[in-house]
């Protein structure tokens, strides 16, 4: 006789059989997932992509983000929209970007301060494990500049002066716990000097007081310092990168000037949330690297005092990991704290 009660059939199903069905369904889902992800990646982007910038509009990070967004929009045929989310040294915007879905529709532009922040702020994400590196966009030095009245024409003379007058030479920074503060304290450690830190709320006031002679030394971005150097209001002693820069061919690196092992680079790059499909990561990387090879890109970045970078996602990831460890030691050794 036919059983017209489906619930009886369901109840009478062997428990082992039910377990096998569940396992089979789970395996089917796992097998289907890569195909679905591949299909989504192949179709990406099919809607606007946002680039979270963890800094205020109008600065160097914002400029670079908007330039790259325009290039990506042209290359990938979808709008790339910049959203500024400043605060907490860049941590608010970085966290928002990193905690977005890993579908390629939210990217985050980070700066080299991203690798300092984990050591000076309490952050709510893992700066390595919770993100996907995509591409390094730019690279450039800080310029070590002094007020013209400082009795040091070379970096070696500044080191000698600072050692002769411990704690009497004052260096400005854009804020406690900033990349400028960390780079300056790193110099103290490497050179064996004891210059005294004076924090400001931003590079503008720090520059103003260095020109006025309230502070004597400032580790400045090239875009901020070059007009003042050209006007004779500041003297440049060295660049912090391991190589000289075209804009200042006669200015030595810190290493050349007698402080071995000192190398600090300012950079910008794109990251995404962890778990982004490699196909999407590689597509963005290729589009950015293509843009970085353009003469227009070189000229635009040079206006901000930096040069194109490029490279693979893996290379950018290695840079981030290496610098996080380097700054962790510097912050501990110099007792650096954020505002």
From TrEMBL:
Pfam family, one: TctC
Alphabetized UniProt keyword annotations: Signal
InterPro entries in UniProt: BUG (IPR005064), Bug_dom1 (IPR042100)
CDD domains for this protein: PBP2_Bug27
Signal peptide: 1-39
Domain of life where this protein originates: Bacteria
Record protein name field: Tripartite-type tricarboxylate transporter receptor subunit TctC
Lineage: Bacteria, Pseudomonadati, Pseudomonadota, Betaproteobacteria, Nitrosomonadales
């Amino acid at each position: 006789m036919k059983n017209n009660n489906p619930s009886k059939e369901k109840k009478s199903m062997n428990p082992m059989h039910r377990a096998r069905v569940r396992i089979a369904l789970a395996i089917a889902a796992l097998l289907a997932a890569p195909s679905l992800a591949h299909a989504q990646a192949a179709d990406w982007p099919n809607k606007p992509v946002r680039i979270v910038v963890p800094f205020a509009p109008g600065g160097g990070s914002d400029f670079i983000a908007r330039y790259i967004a325009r290039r990506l929009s042209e290359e990938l045929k979808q709008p790339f929209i910049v959203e500024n989310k400043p605060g907490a040294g860049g941590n608010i915007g970085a966290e928002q970007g990193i905690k977005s879905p890993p579908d390629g529709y939210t990217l985050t532009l980070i700066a080299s301060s991203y690798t300092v922040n984990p050591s000076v702020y309490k952050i709510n994400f893992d700066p390595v494990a919770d993100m996907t590196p995509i591409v390094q966009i730019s690279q450039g030095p800080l310029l070590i500049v002094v007020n013209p009245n400082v009795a040091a024409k070379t970096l070696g003379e500044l080191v000698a002066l600072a050692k002769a007058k411990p704690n009497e030479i004052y260096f400005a920074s854009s804020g406690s716990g900033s990349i400028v503060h960390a780079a300056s304290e790193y110099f103290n450690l490497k050179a064996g000097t004891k210059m005294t830190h004076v924090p400001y709320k931003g590079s503008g006031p720090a520059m103003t007081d260095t020109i006025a002679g309230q502070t004597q030394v400032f580790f400045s971005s090239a875009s901020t310092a070059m007009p003042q150097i050209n006007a004779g209001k500041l003297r440049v002693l060295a660049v912090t990168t391991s190589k000289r820069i075209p804009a200042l061919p006669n200015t030595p690196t810190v290493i050349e000037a007698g402080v071995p092992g000192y190398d600090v680079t300012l950079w910008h790059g794109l990251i995404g949330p962890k778990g982004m499909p490699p196909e999407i990561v590689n597509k963005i990387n290729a589009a950015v690297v293509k843009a970085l090879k353009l003469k227009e890109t070189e000229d635009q970045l040079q206006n901000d005092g930096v040069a194109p970078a490029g490279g693979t996602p893996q290379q950018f990831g290695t840079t981030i990991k290496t610098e996080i460890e380097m700054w962790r030691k510097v912050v501990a050794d110099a007792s650096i704290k954020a505002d």
